[in-house]
Design brief:
Blueprint: H1 2-10, H2 27-50, H3 57-73, E1 76-79, E2 83-87, E3 92-94, E4 97-100, E5 109-113, E6 118-122, E7 124-127, E8 130-133, H4 135-138, E9 139-141, E10 147-158, H5 161-167, H6 175-189, H7 194-198, H8 202-219, E11 224-235, H9 241-310, H10 312-328, H11 351-358
Antiparallel strand pairs: 1-4, 2-3, 2-5, 6-10, 7-8, 9-10, 10-11
Helix pairs in contact: 6-8, 9-10
Length: about 350
């Protein structure tokens, strides 16, 4: 064999057509070849002593032990910090770290991420930058028998790996959570008026739907915790949205007119009440004045009557003078003595007063 190897060194290209050159040999070259043969025989013998003979019982046993050892080593596994692992069909739950279980097919481990926040979309689907609507999910009936188009998102996580894996058939697809979310939202919208759903009632709808959804999933023993439920769109159906907006505008105009009327009423009624109260107070004051004046006159008359009974002539003359003073005191009258014409005094004639009387 070594002779053939040596011949290859003489003709590296292995061309048998060319005549081979005679190999030059010497004693040192032959010695090297012999030493190499001895070394190969030595190592070959040692290898035969070390390697088992698989045709014997000892070799079969050693091979079986090696296979079992390798099989047992496959039972080591690592659970990440955000995972829980279930071992066997269900024997135990293990937390983060390095663990061991009997290798397959005796036991196997199933790891579930328990801190990851998952999200599902109801009423729509997002594929990259494209958003497609799912009308069979988004159209819902309100409490006042109207229809609204709703899109919302539910964020959830696994809180119990055992219940999640063994009680939810399509756990990794999230279809159970999506179906329960749609049912909870329909139940809440079904008792809510459309005006409330479109305006101030959105936060209340989110809270009630989240609570009801958690109750449904807990009743299923799904091992799922709802982190957040958020309404993204609440609109009338696209086919009637223009008409609905016209109705809403008319309602706003109505409310504005009512508010203006209320404002005018709130302004005019207090003024009218104030004027009425003022008239009442003035009437009461006039009543008191008249009554007091009448009482004063009656008391004066009684006093004069008593004086008249004591001195009739004096009282009568006094009454006459007072009456004439009261009557003539405010009259524009000039009194001239009848004997004035005999003395040559010209009678007084106020021309301006005469002209006023003629007018």
């Amino acid at each position: 064999m070594f002779t053939k190897i040596a011949s290859l060194f003489d003709n590296p290209w292995g061309d048998d057509n060319q005549p081979r050159k005679p190999r030059q040999t010497n004693g040192s070259a032959d010695k090297k070849v012999q030493d190499f043969e001895v070394l190969m025989k030595k190592y070959k013998g040692n290898f035969k002593n070390m390697s088992p003979d698989f045709n014997t019982g000892r070799g079969i046993f050693l091979g079986f032990l090696a296979f079992v050892l390798l099989w047992l080593l496959t039972g080591f596994y690592t659970v990440q910090s955000d995972e829980q692992a279930l071992v066997g069909k269900y024997d135990r739950t293990t937390g983060p770290g390095l663990h061991y279980h009997l290798p397959r097919p005796v036991e196997r481990k199933m790891a579930v991420k328990v801190t990851k926040i998952n999200a599902i979309e109801v009423g729509y689907r997002t594929r990259g930058s494209n958003v497609s609507s799912r009308t069979e999910e988004s159209l819902m009936l309100t409490g006042d028998e109207n229809i609204v188009d709703i899109n919302f998102e539910v964020q959830w996580r696994v809180k119990d790996a055992y219940n999640y894996l063994f009680n939810v058939r399509d756990s990794f697809d999230g279809n159970t959570v999506r179906s329960a979310s749609e049912s909870a939202m329909r139940a809440v919208i079904g008792k809510t008026d459309i005006a409330v759903a479109l305006a101030e009632g959105r936060s209340q709808i989110e809270e009630e739907s989240k609570t009801l959804l958690q109750e449904i999933l807990d009743s299923y023993k799904s091992g799922v915790e709802i982190v957040r439920l958020q309404l993204l769109k609440v609109d009338p159906p696209s086919q009637v949205i223009d008409a609905f907006r016209d109705v809403q505008t008319a309602k706003l105009d109505k409310e504005r007119a009512i508010n203006q009327a209320e404002s005018y009423r709130n302004d005019i009624i207090p003024k009218a009440r104030g004027d009425a109260q003022k008239n009442i107070e003035e009437a009461l004051a006039y009543k008191k004045e008249v009554v007091a004046d009448a009482k004063g006159k009656s008391e004066r008359f009684l006093k004069v009557f008593r004086e008249y009974n004591l001195a009739k002539d004096v009282t009568r003359k006094r009454l006459y003078i007072e009456t004439m003073q009261e009557v003539l005191g405010s009259a524009n009258v000039t009194i001239i003595d009848g004997n004035a014409s005999k003395t040559g005094v010209m009678p007084y004639l106020p021309l301006n007063e005469t002209a006023k009387k003629r007018k």
